[in-house]
Amino acid sequence: MAKLIVEHGASxxxxxxxxxxxxxxxxxxxxxxxxLVSFALVAALTTALSACASxxxxxxxxxxxxxxxxSTKTSTPEPTATQAPISVGSPVTIGCNQLxxxxxxxxxxxxxxxSESFTPEPGSEAATIVEAKGLACGWVNQTxxxxxxxxxxxLPTDKLTDLKNNFVTTSNSVPTYDVEGYFEYDGTRGSAxxxxxxxxVSAVSPAFFEPGDAxxxxxxxxxxxxx
Length: 227
Known about the structure:
Layout: E1 3-7, E2 10-16, E3 27-28, H1 30-58, H2 96-99, H3 102-108, E4 112-114, H4 125-131, E5 135-141, E6 147-154, H5 157-170, E7 172-173, E8 180-185, E9 190-196, E10 199-205, H6 211-224
Antiparallel strand pairs: 1-2, 2-3, 4-5, 5-6, 6-10, 7-8, 8-9, 9-10
C-alpha cells in the first residue's frame, strides 16, 4: 500500500520503488516510477530485438554457386578441295656422260670435270626436273671452283606449255639456240632454258654471262638427246 509523503505541506501517494528489497519501503515520486517502468520496457524490447537480429545473422545464407552450363558450338572446319596433282614426266634413262660427252665438256672448258657427288639445290630448276623423273648433272671447274649444272626432263605437252609461258614473262627469249630458248643473268650466274620436242633442258653456271656463253652446252645437250 502506498504511503503518503508530505511535500511543501501537501500530501500525495508514494509509490513503492521496484528496486526496493523485500521488507523495505522506499518511496519514490510517481513520475520517477513511470520513467523507470518505461525505461525497463524499452530495455526489454531492445534486448528482444537484439536477440532476433542475432538469430537472423546466425542463419547462413545459401548461395547457388553452381555454374550454369552453357552450350558451346564447336565449328567443324570446312574440307578444302584437294589441288589437282601436278603431272610428272617420263623417266630420262641416259647418263650424264651421254647427255654431255667428255669431249663436249672439254670443248667448252677443259678445266671442268664431272662431279660424282652432285646434288641439285632445293628449289632450283634442276631440283624441279629431278622431281619430274628427269636427269640432273653437275660439273666443277677444277681451277676456279665454278659449278655447271645441266638437267633435262621429258614432260607432257601441257607442262611444257606452262613452262614456256612462265619463261616468256620471267626470262628473255633467245633465237640463237635453234629451238625455243630463254636466258637470264641474275648478277651472279646465268640460266639458259631450251625446249625441243618433249624435252626441257636447263643449264646454269656462273660462267654464263650472256646467251652465247651457254650456247655450246645447250647444243651439246640437245645432241645428246638425239635432237
